[in-house]
Design a protein that fits this description.
homodimer, alpha+beta, 60s Ribosomal Protein L30, Chain: A, 7-stranded mixed β-sheet, 4-stranded mixed β-sheet, 25% strand
Chain lengths: 336, 336
C-alpha cells in the first residue's frame, strides 16, 4: 500500500498496486468462496428456473449521510429491485469508479457497510471491478452493483399486473431518504432528525409473498418518489390508482420539513419502501405480514385501484380528488 | 426531448424526462422482449447448470477512438470476461453515468455501437440504469455492463489450472488497443495507423473449446497487458510461463510506436485478445481453431509452461532469459 493512504491513478491500472488494493482493502471484508477465486467471471450456482437480473449505479452526494452511506445504498437499492420483481436475491457484482486522491480509509468504511448490508440481505458479492479516474474526472466515488436473483416459484409480480379492485399498500413513512440527503447537502436542520430509510427489503418481501402469493405488483419508490412509482404502475397496467391523503404514512418531521422546503413528499425518494398492489380481499394479510417485519411496523393501506384510465389521483383529507402528475425530473440530483 | 440536444440533470431524475430519454434514445436500438418490459429487474431464462457472472466499468478517454468507442468496448470487455471463463454469454446489464451537458447525439452513437456489438456477440441487453451527475461531476460518460453467461458443459477453465507441459497461445498482434488510445489522446501519428483490436471473442472461444474441450485456462490481457495477464496465471497456477520473444505477434507499426514512446508492448492493454493455455499436444488443434476464425487469423503459439516457480520469463531472440515483472500500475490511465 502507498503510504499516503489515498487512491492513486496507478491503483486502477491492472498492475501490482491494484491487486494489492483489492486483496487488502476490498476482498477481506466481502470474502466468500466465489469472490475469493478472483476469476474474470464468477461461476455461481443459482438452481433452476427463471432468473431476475438488475443493475444500478450509485452517485449519491454526499456519500455519507444520516441513516446510511453509498455502500449500504448500493446493496439495498439493487437487492430491492430484485425483491420487487418477486425474486430472492442471490449474488451481486460490485464495480467502483474512484477519483484519484480518494481516501482509502473512506473506501474501507464503504466496503464494511457493503459487507454488513449484504449479510443482512442474504446475498454475496460474486465479482467486481475497480477503475480509477484522474482528479476531477469523477466526484469521489461511484458504485455500480448488478444483482442476480431467483424468481420465487408461483409469483407473477409485474408493474403491468395491477387490476381494478386491488389494494395499494406501503410499508412505512415516505420521503425520508430524499430529505436526509437534502439536509446533509444543504446543512439544513429541522430540529427533529430525519435519517434515510435505506434498508434491504428482500426478507420482508419474502414474508409478504409467503402470506399472499398472488400479489399483483410491487415497486420501490426511489427516484421520483411515491408519485413516480405509482405513475409507472398506472401507465403499465392501464389503471387508475387512488391514494388517500389521510392514510399516507408521514412523520411530523417529514411533514414540516417538506412544508418548509416547499416539497411534495409524494415526489421525494425513498430507499427502504415498497409499494404492494394485491387483490383487495388479501390486503389485510399482506398488511399483517408487513407489520410483523422490522421494516414494516408502520405499514398502511394507502389506496386502491379504482378504474381503467391510466392516472394517479389523490383523495384529499376534505374529500376532493386531485390528479398527481408524474414528476418531470428529480427535485434533487444525485439522490442515490 | 429538450430542444438543446444535451443531457440535463433532470434526465437522471426518475421522472418523465428520464423515461422519455430511455424510451426514445436508448431502448429502441437495444429492443428485445426482456428489456422492453422495463421492469425493475429483468426476468431471464438461462437454462440449467452453473452461471458465469462478471462486471466491468468503462471510463475510457477519449470515448471515440480508432477501432471502436466506449459503447463497443463496454460490450466486448464484458463478453470477453465471460468467454474466458468458458461461458457462452447470454445477457448484459447496461448502466450509464452521464455528465450534465453531454450531447444526446453522442449517446445515440454509443447506443448504436452497443447494439451492433451485442448482436455480433450473441447477447442481449436485459436491464439498465441511467444516472446524470452535474457538470464537472464526471467526465462525459461512464458505462458499466454486468454479464451473465452459461458455463459450457465439460469445460473447466480457470486461471489456476495451468500445468507444466502446457502450451501458451494468443490469437493475434498485441498492444493495439492501448496504443490506439494513446495516439488518440496525445494526437501522436505513427505514419501507419494503429487501431484498437476491440472485439467480442465469445464466438472464437466457443470454437476453440469445441476443438479442445480440455483447455486449462484462458485470459483476456486487458489492463496490464500480456505481462499482467500471464503473471496472474503464473501466480494462481504456481507455474513458470516462458514466452518466446521471436514468436510474439507484433505488427511493425506497433513495434516502432512502442520504440518511439519507450513502451514495453507486453504491458500495453488489448481488448480483442485471448491467451489460451492448453496441454502441449493439443496446441495445434487450438491454433487451427483460432486461425479459422476472423479474430484469430494471426494466432500464434507464443510459449509454454516450463516449471513450478510462479514467474514469467521471456526468452529473447538471442536465446537469453529475462524475468518479466508484473506491471506496477497502468502506463496510461483510463484505457478501458
Amino acid at each position: 500500500m502507498n503510504k499516503s493512504g489515498n487512491i492513486l491513478l496507478a491503483h486502477g491500472g491492472g498492475g501490482r498496486l491494484m491487486h494489492e488494493l483489492i486483496r487488502d482493502v476490498i476482498v477481506p471484508r466481502l470474502s466468500n468462496p466465489v469472490l475469493d477465486s478472483l476469476e474474470d467471471a464468477a461461476v455461481i450456482d443459482v438452481g433452476r428456473g427463471p432468473l431476475a437480473f438488475t443493475t444500478d449505479s450509485y452517485v449519491v452526494k454526499p456519500i455519507f449521510f444520516r441513516g446510511g452511506n453509498i455502500g449500504r445504498l448500493s446493496v439495498c437499492g439493487t437487492v430491492n429491485d430484485l425483491a420487487v420483481q418477486g425474486a430472492r436475491p442471490v449474488a451481486l457484482s460490485l464495480a467502483f469508479i474512484i477519483e484519484e486522491g480518494f481516501e482509502i480509509a473512506k473506501l474501507e468504511k464503504i466496503v464494511a457497510s457493503i459487507a454488513e448490508a449484504a449479510e443482512e440481505a442474504g446475498v454475496y458479492i460474486a465479482t467486481g471491478d475497480l477503475k480509477v479516474v484522474e482528479n476531477g474526472g469523477a466526484d469521489g466515488i461511484f458504485i455500480n452493483t448488478a444483482g442476480i436473483g431467483r424468481v420465487i416459484e408461483g409469483t407473477r409480480v409485474s408493474s403491468s399486473n395491477a387490476r381494478q379492485g386491488d389494494a395499494v399498500l406501503i410499508n412505512g413513512p415516505i420521503a425520508e431518504h430524499g430529505l436526509a440527503i437534502m439536509c446533509e447537502r444543504e446543512g439544513v436542520e429541522f430540529g427533529t432528525e430525519i435519517g434515510s430509510d435505506c434498508a434491504p427489503l428482500a426478507g420482508m418481501v419474502g414474508e409478504i409473498l409467503r402470506a399472499v402469493p398472488d400479489v399483483h405488483c410491487m415497486k420501490d419508490p426511489t427516484r421520483g418518489g411515491l408519485a413516480g412509482a405509482l405513475h409507472e404502475i398506472a401507465e403499465k397496467s392501464r389503471v387508475t390508482i387512488e391514494v388517500h391523503e389521510s392514510d399516507l404514512p408521514l412523520t411530523d418531521a417529514t411533514r414540516s420539513a417538506c412544508d418548509l422546503l416547499g416539497l411534495d413528499p409524494l415526489s421525494v425518494a425513498n430507499e427502504g419502501k415498497v409499494i404492494v398492489v394485491c387483490p383487495g380481499n388479501r390486503a389485510q394479510k399482506a398488511l399483517d405480514a408487513m407489520k410483523n417485519h422490522r421494516y414494516g411496523r408502520e405499514a398502511r393501506i394507502i389506496g386502491e385501484v379504482s378504474g381503467s384510465r391510466a392516472e394517479v389521483l389523490l383523495r384529499t383529507a376534505v374529500g376532493g380528488l386531485r390528479i398527481i402528475d408524474m414528476p418531470y425530473g428529480e427535485l434533487l440530483p444525485r439522490i442515490c
